[in-house]
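Running co-folding for adenosine-5'-diphosphate.
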Amino acid sequence: MIEFFSKLFDLSDFPPRWRCGNWSEFLGWLHISSDLATWAAYFAIPAVLIYFARKRADFPFTRIFWLFAGFILACGVVHLIDAVLFWYPIYRISALVKFVTAVVSWTTVIALVQTVPKVIHFPSLAATNEQLRVEANQRQETERELRAAKARYEALLSGTRSIVWTTSPEGGFVTPQVSWERYTGQVWNDHRGFGWTAAFHEDDRSDWISQWASARGEATKFQASGRIWHHDSQSYRSFVAEAVPVLSRDGSIAEWVGTISDIEGQHKAEMELGAAQSELAQQKRELELIYEAAPVGMSLVDRDLKFLRINETLAKINGYSREYHLGRRLEEVLHDLSEQVIPIYTRIFATGQPELDIEIVGRTKVNDSDRTWLVSYYPLEVSDPTTGDEPSKKPDQVTAVSSIVQDITDRKLQEKRLQESERNALAASKSKSEFLANMSHEIRTPMAAILGYADVLLGYLKDPDNRNCVLVIKKNGKYLLELINDILDLSRIEANKLDLQIEKTNLLRLVADIRSLMHVRASEKNLLLVASFDSAVPEVIETDPTRLRQVLINLLGNAVKFSETGSVVLSVRLIMQPQVAIEFAVSDDGIGISKEQLSRLFKPFSQADTSVTRQYGGSGLGLAISQRLVEMLGGELLAESELGKGSTFRVILPIAISQDQRMIQPVLDEQSPENDDVRIHPRQLSCRVLVVDDRRDVRYISQHFLEAAGARVSTAEDGQEGIDVAIAARDTGEPFDVVVMDMQMPNLDGLQATATLRSHGIEWPVIALTADAMKGDRDRCLNGGCDDYLSKPIDQAELIEMIGHYSQDITIDELRKRRNERAAALRSSLSQSP
Ligand code: ADP
């Protein structure tokens, strides 16, 4: 080997080229420089090629490149050696290099031959350009589509009410989620990573997270529901979430894409539907229960008059099982009763109208005596399902009739008993009233005699002791009379039998009258009685003057009775609040009433305390009656009192004031009460009076009183005699001015006698005299042709005042007018009453 290499560089065998042949300088150097230039170029080309090959690793055919580079480089070296040969004859190295060159060249040739078939199919540049152009176009198209898809995606995101989201494989948000932010109000910092879990309702959060974790583990479709915070409504709303994993090439999860849909509306609707359905079912159950448990019979019968439905109660009434009824016709079950029932069903199917509260009397299979049932029948209308209209009233659409049956046999029996006992009670009440009327008559008549004769006796007696005895008799008689009047009044009020006579009443006259009446009693006890009007008042009010007088006299009587010193004041005023009313206040400086006593003041027979009764007497009825009377007049009676200081009783009577009402401000105190007191200065009479009474004592007493007042008096013992005397007097030209006619007389009573007088054209005033104090007495007398009314026992002053009034103050024409008015009013009330 060493020998080979040393031989290789052995230059001794060959001369340098300069000396081999006849080289001109020029030709030699042309060779040398050309060879060197070629070598330099052949060295540069492979360098460039190798540089290219190294830079473009993707370039195909690298081997060819290398071979090509090697081949050129070898050729270059051959040229270099050719230049070197001019000085150094290294022909052996030259041959070696040429051999290497030949090997490399042929290797390159072989490689080229192998490569050419492949390269030959390479597209031409134009074709490549064309392809590139197509590809560029395609790329632009794809980009356009991508942009459109992106826009669609964004539009979807902004347009949808759902939340669309993407997360990392682990489930955290890695990019801001626009629709999430919009729905929940969480900004990016809130929902990034796993911040989104905060938007879930805390009760749902742990479920949600664990379901999400298991879906992630299995890389399967995820589905869950729950409640999520909704920013706009500031409330949690129900949602359903779905997500799918997007897988990468290696099968691992690249990301999750999902949606969350708000199903609150649907959820609510479902809940409501559910609630409605369960309520419906509940109602149905309740109805069934009611149907079954109803204590009344119920049934449903179709157009063929067959039972569709029946409850247990009715089945029992009919005496067959419920199953037996179903599908059977009415007559198969009701037998005899069907004659009453079937026409009703037929009518309802024909008219569509219900028939209510029909009484069916008879017996079913299980009764051995007649019973009564109260039955109501209702047509059952069905709406036309094709039109969905309201239930039609058309008779042919009545598909069934339902009935409700109630056994009222016992009730009927009870009603009958009740009617009977009501009749009995009415009869008892009537007999009580009659008893009271009779008793009143029986007590008043002897009282009339006792009091009358006491008065007569007083007229004769001069001795003070004797007079005193008679005065005691008179006082006690009066007391007894008051008592019986009170008891009668109370029983009349309680039996609702006290009628009011509402009329226009002059307030000043009423008060003056009361004051003059009470003045005597007050001055007997050295009390000052003051009556005053504290404000302007209507001149006339609408009330019952008799009853109002009774109340005020009772209050003033009490005030006088329970006071020893000081004054008793009756003050009258108009009050506007709470409504327009007249207030009569009776106050005294008397013994007063304790709080405890005040509370039971208006109860009948209750007196403040028994010591008071012992000291002052009294029945305890006055206030009870007064209160009831005031209530009947539409007002109220109030009491205020302080023990030892005095009391005030107020009667408040609401009144209506019209525009044309005359208001006055009376000043009473300037008048002397005595001027008003008719009893102290009775009238002087100069008239003829006929007294008709079957009782001698009444005739005697009346005559005595009237003659003492200056009248001329005739008497008659009964109605017939009265008529005879009257007619005789008229015919002889000595007519009577007034007739006093007792109402209860044997043979011909007062009413009949008065009617006969009127039929004979006698128009003198007739004053009815009666011991009856029951309801309707006054009306009966006035309607029977009398002009006024006096009750027994006869009060001397009252009698004289009334006779004086009718003989002096009033004309026959006026009386005739009044009688005609009364007759007209009576006729119209009779025609109105059924
Ligand atoms: P009597 O007929 O007993 O007076 P009333 O019903 O009028 O019946 O009165 C009942 C009781 O109320 C009286 O007994 C008395 O105790 C008490 N009373 C009524 N008015 C007064 C008054 N002005 N002062 C004190 N006590 C009174």
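Result summary
The pocket of adenosine-5'-diphosphate is lined by residues 554, 558-559, 562, 588, 590-593, 601, 607-608, 612, 618-624, 647 (CB under 6 Å).
The CA atoms of residues 53 and 549 lie 145 Å apart.
Job closed.
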